[in-house]
Write a structure and sequence with these properties.
This protein is of the alpha+beta class. 50% of the residues lie in helices and 6% in strands. The chain has helices at 6-13, 23-31, 36-52, 57-64, 71-78, 93-100, 103-115, 117-127, 131-142, 153-163, 167-182, 205-211, 227-240, 274-277, 286-291, 326-334, 338-351, and strands at residues 151-152, 191-192, 250-254, 284-285, 295-296, 308-312, 321-324.
C-alpha cells in the first residue's frame, strides 16, 4: 500500500533534510492546529493501539518514552502535489529518462550486477524475477543504497498519525515499525523518508513485515545494509505482485504512420492510479500487434505470439512507443508511474548488457 509509490515518497522526502522545531516550522504547526502538547496528549491512544496489536512491552516502553512531534514531516506531507488538480498535460518522458537512466546509474548498476551475478541468479531462480530488474529498482529508489533518508521513522509516522488525515494508514505503519524493533532492529537503524519508506528498496514498514526476506543466508532480512537481502526482498515483492517468469517487461517498437488507434482504448478500469493505466491500450497478443504493423525496434520478437501486451506511447503518436507485458504492471505496483516503470525497465536492460 502506498501514498504516492515508494520512489515518489523517497524523492519528496529526500528533497529536504530533517529538522527540529524552528520559528517558521512552529508557526506552520500552529496554523494547522498542531502542537507538541497536542501530540503528547494523543500518544496514549497510539500506545493502546500498539499494545492491542501485540507489540512487546519492552519496545512500547522504549519508544513511547522518547517520541517527538516532527513538524517538518507534516509540512512535507501537506506539500504533496494533488492527484487530479491542475493541468492534465503530461510532460515529456525524455527529461525524466535522462535523470534516471544515465551513464552513472548504468555503470554502477553493471558493476554490482557482474560482481554478484551468481547470487543474483540464485535469487532470480527462487522468485522467477529477472535479476536486472531487482538491480534497476534498487538503483532508481536509492541510487544503490547511497540515498535512503534520515528521518526517524517512529517520530515521523507518529506525527502523521496524530495529524489525522490518514490516521489509520500511518498508525498501521507506526505499529509495523515497532514490530521491526521486536525483530531485533534498533531505532537508530530505522531511518528513512518522512512518510516511512525505508531501506535500500524504500519499503513501507508493513511491506517489510509482509515481504522482507533473507537473501544472504544469515537468517536476517536486513534491507538497510545487506544488498542481497534488499534485492531478494524486491524480487519477493514483484513475485507477490504477479511477475511472470521468462517474460520481458516490454520493449521499444516502431508504429507505422498508417496505424489506426480506433478501437484500441483500454477496456479495464484500474482501482488504483487509473490515470496511469488509462494511457495504455487494451490487451492484445503479439500476433495481433504484428498484424497491425507494430514491430520491435530490435527486429526480433522477444515474446511468444500468444503473449498479451498493451501499447504505450508516452510522448504521443510519432514518438518512441513501447509494447508492455504483465511484468510492466508489476513494476507499476511497486510505484504507480509510467515514467518510473519505463525507466526501471530501460535501466534494467542497460545494466545487463
Amino acid at each position: 500500500m502506498r501514498i504516492l509509490g515508494y520512489a515518489a515518497l523517497a524523492a519528496l522526502a529526500l528533497s529536504a533534510p530533517a529538522s527540529e522545531w524552528s520559528g517558521e516550522g512552529m508557526a506552520f504547526a500552529q496554523n494547522v492546529g498542531l502542537s507538541q502538547t497536542g501530540f503528547q496528549a494523543y500518544l496514549p491512544q497510539l500506545r493502546a493501539q500498539a499494545q492491542a496489536a501485540g507489540v512487546t512491552p519492552a519496545t512500547i516502553a522504549a519508544v513511547f518514552s522518547n517520541l517527538q512531534f516532527s513538524q517538518r514531516t507534516v509540512e512535507l506531507d501537506r506539500a504533496q502535489p494533488g492527484g487530479t488538480a491542475g493541468s492534465s498535460a503530461i510532460p515529456a518522458f525524455a527529461p525524466y529518462e535522462a535523470r534516471h537512466v544515465n551513464a552513472n546509474l548504468i555503470s554502477r548498476g553493471q558493476q554490482r550486477y557482474r560482481a554478484n551475478l551468481g547470487q543474483l541468479r540464485t535469487i532470480g531462480e527462487r522468485y522467477g524475477v529477472d535479476p536486472s530488474i531487482m538491480m534497476a529498482i534498487w538503483g532508481h529508489e536509492t541510487s544503490y543504497g547511497s540515498v535512503t533518508g534520515d528521518f526517524d521513522l517512529l517520530n515521523s509516522l507518529a506525527s502523521l498519525a496524530y495529524e489525522g488525515r490518514r490516521r489509520e494508514l500511518f498508525t498501521d505503519e507506526f505499529i509495523a515499525t515497532m514490530k521491526m524493533m521486536d525483530r531485533g532492529f534498533s531505532r537508530s537503524e530505522l531511518k528513512g523518508s518522512w512518510a516511512g519508506a525505508t531501506g535500500y528498496p524504500q519499503f513501507l514498514p508493513s511491506v517489510y513485515i509482509r515481504l522482507g526476506v533473507d537473501g544472504d543466508g544469515d537468517g536476517r532480512a536486513n534491507i538497510w545494509s545487506s544488498q542481497l537481502d534488499a534485492l531478494a526482498s524486491i524480487a519477493n515483492y514483484l513475485d507477490n505482485a504477479g511477475w511472470k517468469h521468462n517474460v520481458p517487461w516490454g520493449f521499444k517498437v516502431n508504429v507505422p504512420g498508417s496505424y489506426s488507434r480506433a478501437g484500441t482504448a483500454t477496456e479495464l478500469t484500474s482501482p488504483r492510479c487509473p490515470r496511469v493505466h488509462e494511457r495504455h491500450t487494451k490487451w492484445m497478443t503479439a500476433a495481433e500487434w504484428r498484424q497491425r504493423g507494430i514491430m520491435p525496434q530490435a527486429g526480433v520478437w522477444p515474446v511468444a505470439d500468444t503473449e498479451l501486451m498493451s501499447l504505450l506511447e508516452p510522448d504521443g503518436p510519432g514518438k518512441t512507443a513501447y509494447l508492455l507485458t504483465i511484468n510492466y504492471r508489476t513494476i507499476l505496483d511497486y510505484n504507480c508511474s509510467n515514467f518510473y516503470a519505463l525507466s526501471v525497465g530501460l535501466l534494467a536492460d542497460a545494466v545487463k548488457r
